[in-house]
Amino acid sequence: MALLELKNICVGYGRHRVLENIDLTLERGEIVTLLGANGAGKSTLAKAISGLLRLETGSILLEGEAIEALMPAERLRRGIAHVPEGRQIFAGMTVAENLELGAYASSETDHAAQLEIVWTLFPVLRQRMKDIAGNFSGGQQQMLAIARGLMSKPKILVLDEPSLGIAPLLVAEIFHLIERLRGQGITVLLAEQNARQALSIADRGYVFENGRITLEGRAADLLNSQDIAVRYLGMGNAADLSDSASDALASRLRCVLNNPSMGAPDKA
Ligand code: ATP
Predict the structure, then answer these.
(1) What pTM did the predictor assign?
(2) Closest ligand 1 atom number to CA of residue 34
(3) pLDDT number for residue 249
(4) Can you tell me which atom of ligand 1 is nearest the CA of 37?
(5) How far, in whole angstroms, is CA 222 from its chain's centroid?
(6) Which of 25, 59, 149, 225 could form a disulfide with 81, with the two C-beta atoms 3.0–4.6 Å apart?
């Protein structure tokens, strides 16, 4: 039985339908990545899984049990922790206070045990446990956001764009850390625009376009796929693309430079 199974789900905001007929599975111990451009629907899916958004239709099974009617707090208690895009830590609070809030649903024993795991994974947070989180760099805030998610002892960690707005050196550290989470037995669903790095640590991936899954497969196969390179043209940064995609992007840029009108924004 899959750890998490989404069956034919449709999700939207009011009358604006975003996700159409999504089927997706997560097996225990996997890192599965969701790829796609801005607005493709990755964050919407993350919110639907954690319960911040209700399904219009379809079903979500956690270890075979339907959870789509449960509130976010109950889903958290059952093992789904969501680290949203943009980190959303409590900037005016200390590291220790942020972590405590992440553990609000845990017993004291679990709290102490999880804190030890967090300190081992993030020694820098231990050193700075009494510091105000808002003074940290973007990368350190992201680490704190992930650490806070871990405090609930999750089975599944849903990470939404953890590399967004972070210096490249720290991005590498964060991806390395996500790999170590799998080593701790945590299953990770990773929404990312940083396709190459996400696929390099993932077991499988799903590609989203306009709220639909257009491609899925083993990460190694997706990483070598010409299709991915083409789909990712003009998205993310060139350093994140495969060589062939970078070449195509460079050629497109040359065209725009030679024809400035091609790169101009559309007029209203
Ligand atoms: P990004 O990386 O930019 O967040 P994404 O793949 O996560 O992209 P979503 O944030 O899920 O994409 O957005 C999918 C669609 O839903 C977009 O068309 C977006 O405009 C729309 N959308 C997102 N949030 C809301 C909202 N609160 N109300 C209405 N529409 C929304």
Answers:
(1) 0.84
(2) 6
(3) 42
(4) 6
(5) 18
(6) 149
